[in-house]
Amino acid sequence: MITAVGVVVPARDEQHLIEPCLRALRHALARLPASVERWVCVVADRCSDDTAVRARSADRVVVTRRPLTIGEVRDLGWHAVRAAFTGHAAADTVLLNTDADTEVDVNWAAAHLRRVERDAHAVTGPAELAAPVPGPPDAAARYHAMLTGGPNVYGANLGVRADAFEAVGGFGVRRTGEDHDLWRRLGAAGFRCRVEPAAVVRTSARLDGRAPDGLAALLRDLREKPVA
């Protein structure tokens, strides 16, 4: 039985989006059983704005000024969560990941929890865009075509049981694609990785994302590269 759920939110210069993100998380975590301890950690990564101040409703804000990859940033948040959950076994603890430009659905945390307790070590779910796909009229169709044919793993919507996460070494030093890399390593190690349609997040459709080669880069490509 899961007894603790921790959420890690990396944030770099997200003063305009971090508060809506945290409000959505509070609503979602309130849907968990009362017996489940819950904790939110925001990692303010080299911010030059008021992100850390506006994240004060989180249980902890970790501020880092040194250059780190996104994998290391997520791991830093996880170490803070585990330190808070010293009384909970790793097998009874779930790490949830989202992003500062993302708002989770009110049933998000509960959907992750149910799926882990049913049959999963790792869970991902849909990441819907909060605005239309930018670009020419066919951009939206091309975007949705990319989402078919296999699991789409998003750091903005990823849950992992702590014992599985620690067994494969966490996210590690990954400049980009840390979500897909972790998912691949979990599967290769024999852990059960599942897609949960009920665990939904809504993420921004901005074109200036913080992660290189992330969703923003994909949306820029769709805007700038019309079908041949």
UniProtKB/TrEMBL annotation:
Domain named Glycosyltransferase 2-like is located at 7-124, 153-207
Kindly tell me the pathway this chain contributes to: Carotenoid biosynthesis; staphyloxanthin biosynthesis; staphyloxanthin from farnesyl diphosphate: step 4/5
Q: Which subcellular locations apply to this protein?
A: Cell membrane
Identify the InterPro entries for this entry. Answer: Glyco_trans_2-like (IPR001173), Nucleotide-diphossugar_trans (IPR029044)
Q: Which domain of life is it from?
A: Bacteria
Which keywords accompany this UniProt record? Cell membrane, Glycosyltransferase, Membrane, Transferase
What family classification does the UniProt entry report for this protein?
Belongs to the glycosyltransferase 2 family. CrtQ subfamily.
Q: What does this protein do, in the record's words?
A: Catalyzes the glycosylation of 4,4'-diaponeurosporenoate, i.e. the esterification of glucose at the C1'' position with the carboxyl group of 4,4'-diaponeurosporenic acid, to form glycosyl-4,4'-diaponeurosporenoate. This is a step in the biosynthesis of staphyloxanthin, an orange pigment present in most staphylococci strains.
What protein name is recorded for this chain?
A: 4,4'-diaponeurosporenoate glycosyltransferase
Give the taxonomic lineage as stored in the record.
Answer: Bacteria, Bacillati, Actinomycetota, Actinomycetes, Pseudonocardiales
